[in-house]
Fold this protein.
Amino acid sequence: MTSTITHEKSEIPTESTTKATPVPRMSSQLTDHARYWEQIDLAEGVAEPRAWFRSDAATLSLNGEWKFRLSPIADLPIDIAAEGFDDSAWGGIPVPASWQLNGHGAPAYTNVVYPFPVDPPHVPDENPTGDYRTRFALPADWVAERTVLRFDGIDSAARIWLNGAQVGVTSGSRLASEFDITDVVRADGENLLVVRVHQWSSGSYLEDQDMWWMSGIFRDVTVIARPAAAIDDYFVHADFDHETGDGILTVDASVAATVGVARVTIPELGIDVAAGETVRIAGVAPWSADEPRLYSGELATPGERIPLRIGFRRVEIVDGIIRANGRRLLFRGVNRHEFAPETGRTIDEATMLEDVLLMKRNNINAVRTSHYPPHPRFLDLCDEYGLWVIDECDLETHGFFPDDPTPLAGNPVTDPRWRDTLVARMRRMVERDKNHPSIIFWSLGNECGPGENLGAMSDWARSRDPERLIHYERDRTSRYADVYSRMYPTHAEVELIGQQREEPLDDAELDARRRAMPFILCEYAHAMGNGPGGLTEYQELFEKYPRLQGGFVWEWIDHGLRTHDAQGREIYGYGGDFGEPLHDGNFVADGLLLPDRTPSPGLAEFKKVIEPVRITGVGDELAISNLHDHRDTAHLEFAWVVETDGVRSAGGVIDVPVIAAGESVVVPRPVALPVAPDDGETWLTVSAVLRADESWATRGHEVAWGQVALATPAARRTAVRAGAVESDGAVIRLGDDATTGDTILDARSGALRELAGIPVDGPRLTLWRAPIDNDRAFSEDPKEAAWRRIGLHRVEQRTDGVDLDVARGVESVIVRTRVAPAATTLAFRATWTWTPTDAGVRLHLDVAPEGSWPVTLPRLGLELVLPEAIGAVDWFGRGPGEAYQDSQRAARVGAFSSSIDELQTHYVFPQENGARTQTRSLTLTDAEGKGLRIIGAPFFEFSARRWTTADLDAARHDGELVRRDRVWLDLDIAQAGLGTASCGPGTLPQYALEAAPAHLELDFERVG
């Protein structure tokens, strides 16, 4: 490209003017302390933090099999450091890894509370300690003026020796530590590296982060050559002026004074300048999550060359709005813990890439690295593929307020003794990650409450890096942050915030400051189990009020650990499955991905709700809006298809002009000729798909879609049939076996024996579903407890009458039942009217509550039990995935096929799942194509499974569900919405299922 370069005085503070006073190194007396792991400032010999980078300097990975021994206490002799120590009886362990997942001890899960007595900085004598030993030799061609040993993550504190000499002590589990080992490493021959890791340390009080407690060297270990004329550190400042299109670049570098100045070259931009020099480049393409443009370059001295990936961008707050490159941002984000079901927090680069690609393919544009800095390679991928990042410090002290708002004493964020340690943690994150254009926020940590030490962290970060914003949520005054951030407020409260009408603070000055801030939801829509519901209503608020700039769903993935139960069945374990006396159950399984990274229905819903292109019908035209923050629609084409009763009749591509970001167009509907209603229910589906391959998806990948109804005729009903009801006093027969298949009812109970020729049990009126996590007792809206108190899970049915009725010459069978729980006068009356038709039988079901119901219902419908041979399912309605009242945006109208087994969603904790909504017709058949067709008037909901609702309710792990010899089919009038009450607001009122009169009409026909 052609560019214009001008040299000017730096507009961005350089490293020399912004670098804060270094945090003092610890005294060499640290490890002489009898319980050094309890020292607050737990660091000795650790080098100054610097940027993580790769260069042409030599490196040696020490990942692999190490010798390992686990002891129950921390106070152990240090004889293990001696080169002659006999470790022949020790076992082995992979590095990186957590020892609890490799046969040593067990993982434990708590969300809030500490699993040890709260007495900072002290920890129990019972302190599992892992000793590691490995030997390595430097390559023969190793050239280094200095040699550095780097640990990218050790949980929770470590003491390190090399060749018998102590190298240092470190803590800060998810922060890097480097040690200069030049004086002790052997260039020739073998080196012995020994590391002692303590499970508990003073740092454990800072790392209470709603995840598994696991220990060990869980990230990479590397020996790094630092050549003569090495680049010790560098800081890329790549600003973008959206008004001129200019990029402003300064790359500060720290090199030895004898070397002189490093040089920065970016061939594509024609740049060859000294480090520290500022250049203005005309006509650069800015970096954004929508279009992550990176320019490749190099920072070099005579001794070292570092590849650069530079993204020009400016993030600022203007008039109370977060803007990137001059445009308002809307975060469509997720919170992401690092996790894999076999290896815990140790994940490889392929898994990191899988996460990034899944995020991009599901329209996610932002990630909060909850609640610690991730592996640095993940941030490289965010730069490359395009994700906005909130990088969060390795800090959470949630256990100091288990009964919020009454905190326990000693919270480190309020204790001056901890100030330097907390600032050091912030510094280590910022210095490591400062060169990533994807990072636009530094987060002080998570759920620590308010405290002056957070102010010190914020002050240091601002002085070092004024180009990024500061985030923190758990101080409601937002005193130290640049944005007002919250977790799990209701929709109503979010709307008030959008209108700047939120509840005022007591301090008028702080209130005015906060009220002028942009607002984000750093956590919302708790994706635990079946859910979340209510995403659409949040998104509508984000798009309506400029101050509301989106949010981050909690969270990305379920943290279920692959294990086996007592019967040997494979399960995903959660809190309590590993013998923990104190735990928070399956609250650790709350992601948009199942543990094996299978997308949940919640992720499909989120993708649809946040889609960056919106397609709607406006009369005979289509309105297409581009909701991207920074990208036009040139990369998309708009494919259309017309389907009648789910069968394709036409299709093509719509000629849509390129739509700029934030703009809309109206185009003619591609179907010009009128659609005859008599032809059937007809839908136009328009999909925005990739025009060509992108780095994150292939050509044809669907980014967004919309549907327009072209013809919605009334349901076609089979005529009722006269003279087709017979009774012998024991049974009542409707229809005839030769034509429609008999429908046979018990003459006394009204129960079915056959339905359109298919042996069945039932039907029973059902009010119960296996509670979802959002229904359960630990939630903010615990419906399950109230439902069980009334007894909805154990209702009993009574038949009040079975009668024949003749209306207009057609005989029907009327069955009247009453369903009620014990010990209450509450009940539902049901009237079942069975009428033969020319194709089978029709059911009119009328239900009405008795009594004053104090609760809403989980479900209202009927249950049938079908033969085991039934296995195939075809339906016309919403699909293909499961859907519920407040989570069905991702379900389009069409014809779909599945098996009974494939209808299930295997949540870690079994619960209601697999429902399909707005079903017009449903066919269930066996391997020979024989079975049952059900037609609604107009709609019904259904689910089908090979176990009972009671089985689903009783199970605590998916592996416990055992296939029975029948199929249980639920045909519902409705189910309650999902909400997000496992950690957040309950179901919105419009999605609650009230105890009120209701009606369902279904036709049943024999198939095959």
